[in-house]
Write a structure and sequence with these properties.
One of its GO terms (cellular component) is membrane. InterPro entries: Fatty_acid_hydroxylase (IPR006694), Sterol_Desaturase_Related (IPR050307). One of its GO terms (biological process) is lipid biosynthetic process. Helices cover 52% and strands 0% of the residues. With 302 residues, it is an all-alpha fold. The protein has one domain. Helix 1 runs parallel beside helix 8, helix 3 crosses helix 7 and helix 4 runs antiparallel to helix 7.
């Protein structure tokens, strides 16, 4: 098997593994109440990322490289593995941190709000976004350029597998970190871990419907693979607790946006009473108390 085949096999194993844990733990049954609208958005986004967006980025960077800089093809192939990992972390994960952070600004929010409109956490949410969010993601294009330059093989494959392990785990309905916080002997390890990579506790806080409880932190905790970026750039909040609700206030008040508006804005625009998915639309900034009921969906503490 070559590196790409090994990568794909391990990715499938990761998805199946987390899916099995969601079902075994009954977290999927108890907390994931997806609509047909949710399923269409998540399915079509996942397929489009695999079949359209990633191939476009890789093929385009390869063609541009061959046209503009043929002499640089494979020039980094002899780098040591740790140097390749270092440049991948900077070119992919650091840029994704900033792209994610900027996507919470009024200008780019319509391209990312689909990821936050899910009223549940699960691995199925991981790639739920607007089509153009991924097409414009700098890290995807930088990764394509690095592949052209020779940063590939098993190093790239294992980087992808490790990153997917972390981000699938951070979105998973099964909160793998929750019981570990209760074990005194693991406290030093968990202190380091939750400051190094994204965990369910820190990432669920990012998906919270409100910040008013001191747990939610949807304007922070932007890290994907590494949570270190949030530590460095002042956007981290660590509580080891989980928000009672995830999702968006405006969807609670005005109804869920249709999947095709969420996926294809600005090509398709919403006519909902209050929406960010039209030209001239805006992020809803109203109080959360009107939209959040006292009944817990996700549980609150670790």
């Amino acid at each position: 098997m070559n590196a790409s085949q090994i990568q794909n096999l391990l990715v499938v194993c990761l998805i199946l593994g987390f899916a099995i844990m969601e079902f075994i733990s009954r977290r999927y049954r108890d907390t994931v109440h997806a609509t047909g609208n949710d399923t269409k958005l998540e399915l079509f986004m996942f397929l489009s990322l695999l079949a359209i967006t990633q191939p476009i980025a890789i093929l385009t960077t390869s063609k541009l490289g061959a046209w503009l800089a043929p002499q640089y093809k494979g020039m980094l192939a002899d780098w040591p593995w740790w140097a390749m990992v270092g440049i991948l972390i900077l070119a992919d994960d650091l840029t994704q941190y900033w792209w994610h952070r900027l996507s919470h600004s009024p200008l780019l929010w319509p391209l990312h709000r689909a990821h936050h409109s899910a009223e549940y956490m699960s691995i199925r949410v991981t790639f739920r976004n607007n089509f153009f969010y991924y097409l414009m993601m700098p890290g995807l294009w930088f990764a394509g350029a690095l592949l052209y330059l020779g940063v590939g093989g098993m190093v790239y494959a294992m980087y992808v597998v490790v990153k997917l392990f972390v981000i699938l785990g951070a979105h998973c309905a099964w909160r793998w970190d929750e019981p570990l916080y209760r074990i005194p002997a693991l406290r030093p390890l968990m202190w380091v871990l939750e400051r190094t990579i994204s965990t369910p506790a820190t990432h669920w806080a990012h998906h919270a419907i409100t910040n008013e409880d001191g747990i939610g932190h949807y304007k922070g905790n932007f890290g994907n693979l590494l949570f270190i970026w949030d530590q460095i750039f002042g956007s981290a909040l660590i509580t080891r607790k989980f928000p009672e609700r995830v999702g968006l206030i405006d969807d609670k008040l005005f109804g869920q946006e249709r999947w095709y508006h969420q996926m294809f804005f600005p090509l398709l625009q919403s006519s909902r009473e209050h929406t960010a998915l039209k030209f001239g639309g805006s992020i809803y900034e109203g109080p959360a108390t009107a939209a959040v009921s006292p009944t817990s969906q996700t549980g609150t503490t670790a």
